[in-house]
Amino acid sequence: VRRYFGRKLLIYILTFFIAVTVDWMIPRFMPGNPITILISRAGLRGNAVSEMYTYYLDAFGLDLPIWKQYLSFWAAILQGDLGTSIYLFPTPVKDVILRAVPYDLALLIPSTLLSWWAGNKFGAYAARSKKLDNTLLPLGYILTATPYMWLGILLAWVFAIVLGIFPVAGGFGFDLQPDLSWRFIGSLVHHWFLPFASLFIVQFGGWAIGMRNLIIYELESDYSHYLEALGAPRKLVRRYAFRNAMLPQLTGLALSLGAVVSGALATEVVFGYPGIGYLILQAINNEDYFLIQGCFLFVVIGVLLANFIIDVAYLIVDPRTRTGMQGGAG
Amino acid sequence: MIKATASLPVPVKKKNEFLYFAFKNTKLRVGLGILLFFLVLMVVGPQLTEYEPTDFVGPSGAPPSADYWFGTTSFGEDVFTQFVYGLPATFMVGIIGGGLATVLGMTIGFIAGYRGGVVDEVLNILTNVILTIPALALLLVLSAYVKVRGIFIESIFIGLTTWPWAARAIRAQTFTLRTRDFVDLAKLNGRSALKIVFTEIAPNMASYLFMTFILMFGGAILTAATLDFLGLGPTQGTSLGLMMNMAVLWSALPLGTWWWFVPPGIGITAIVGGLYIMNVGLDEVFNPKLREM
C-alpha cells in the first residue's frame, strides 16, 4: 500500500511540477509579447512607450536571467501569489478565481457523481436484456458522441427560449445581490439547473455504456460460468459481476476527470455561468495573461485533488488492497 | 517453410469469417453507413450549392426552404453551404489529430509494454502526468498565445495532448503479448526488438490498434468542435464548431434561428456517434465472446 501511494504521490508531484513549468513557459516562449500588448492597449505614444516598457519589464521581473525568473515564479506560487488580474484590475488573480470556484464545484461534483452512480446502475440493468440493449444503448452512444456545448445550446434553446422555464445565462438573477435570502438561493438553483443537466446527460451515456460492456465481459468470464454451472441464481451472479465491474469504472472516473472538466468549461461558456471556464475565456479574450495562468493552475490542482480522493476510495473499495492494509496476505 | 505451408489455409478462411461477421453485424453497417454518407456529402456537397460559405446570398435569418435547404444565418449566408464546406475540417482534424495521437500512443505503448522495467516505469509516469492535465485547459492556453491558427496546427495540438489514452491501452495489450511463445521464439531467432514489435506483436493486435485509432478519431473531432466553439479554433476557413460559435455569438438563441446551430451539432454527433457504433461492431466481429446471436 505504501509503495502504491508513494508512486501515486510521485506522479502527483511531477504533474504539478510540469504543469507549473508549462504554465511559466507558455507566455515566455510563445510568439507575441504580452508587454507590447499591454502597452498598445493603454494607447501610449512616443517616449512613454519605451518608459512603460522598461517599467513593466522591471515590474514583472522579465529582465532577470531566465532561471531566476523561474525560481521566483515558484516562490510566488508557493506563497499563493498568482499576480494581479489585468482585466479586473486591481483584483488579485487569486480572489477572482476563488470567487468562481464555488460555481464549478456546484456543477461538477453533483453532475459527475450522480451520472456515475446512475449510469452504472442503468448500464448494469441494461446489460443482456434485449429490449433495453437494443433501444436505449444506441441512445447512450449518441449521448457520448454529443459535444457538451451543443447539448447545452439545445437545452438552453428548448427550456429557456422556447418554453421559458429556465433562465438562459448567468449564475443568478441580474436584479439580485448575493446574500443569504431564500430568493437568492432559489435563483442560484434555477440558474444552476440547465448547465448541471447538460453535464449530467452527456456523462450518463458514457457510464451506462461502460458498465454494460463490463458486465457482459464479467458474465462471460470463467467464474460466472462456474457459478451458473453450480446452479447459483442469476441474480447472485449478476451481483458479483457488478461488484467486479465497479473497480474499472472507479479507475475510469479518475481518468475521465480531465474530459469532464473540459466539458464543464465549454458548458459554462454556453450558459454564461460564472465558473472558471467562463473566466478562462474572458481572460483569453482580454489577453489577461496572469488570469490565464492562474486558471490553468487551479484547474490542474483541482483535478489532482479529485484524483487523490478517488485513489483513496479505490483503496477502501478494492478488497485486495484492503487486506493488504490490514496486514493480511495480500 | 513448414510454417508457411501449414498456416496458409487458416488466414484465408479466417478472413472470410471476419468478412462474414462484419457484413452481418448491424452496428458495423450502421456506423459505416453514417460515415460514408457524410464522406459522400463532403465530396458532392460543394456541387449541390452554387454559393461560397461566406457569400451573402439571401434574406437574413430565413428558415429552411427549397431555396436554402438549411436556412440562412443572420447575415444571409447559406447554412447548407457552410455545413458542407465545414465537413472537410472535421474529417481532417480526425485523421491528423487522431492519427498523430495513435502513432504517439503506439510508439510509447510499444516501447513501454515491450521493454518493461525502468523504461516502462518512466513512460508510465509520463503518460499519467499528461493524462491528468486536462487537455482542453492546455489547448485553451496554447491557442490563446498562437494568434494565427490553421486546421493543421489545431490538429497537431490535439494529437500532442490526447495520446496518453492510446498509449495506456496499447501498453496494456503489448504487455499481455510479449510473454507469448511466438514472441519468445522470435527472440531466440535473434530478431531485433523493433522487428519483433512490427512483425509479431503489432499484427496480433491490429484490430485493437485500428479500434484505438477510431476512438482517437472521434475524440479529436469532439475536442476540435469544443475549441472552435470557444473561438479558439482555426482563424480562417469554416468548420462545424465555428458555425456554432458564430450562431451563439450572433444571438441565434434569442432570435430563435435554430437552423443555424442545430445542423452543425447533428453533423458532429452523427459522425462521432457513427464512429463509436462502428467501433462496437468491430469489437463484436473480432471478439466472438461479445457476439449476440
Which properties best describe this structure?
heterodimer, A: 330 residues, mainly alpha, globular, B: 293 residues, 13 helices, disordered N terminus
Describe the structure.
The complex is a heterodimer of chains A (330) and B (293). By secondary structure, chain A is mainly α. Chain A is built from 13 helices and no strands. The longest helix of chain A is centred in the middle third of the chain and has 38 residues, at 182-219. Chain A is globular. The model of chain A is unreliable at 325-330 (pLDDT under 50). Helix content of chain B is 76%, strand content 0%. Chain B has helices spanning 2-7, 9-24, 26-48, 79-115, 117-132, 135-145, 151-177, 181-188, 193-204, 206-229, 240-249, 252-255, 258-286. In chain B, helix 3 (26-48) runs antiparallel to helix 13, helix 4 packs parallel to helix 7 and helix 10 packs parallel to helix 11. The interface between A and B is large, with 59 and 52 residues.
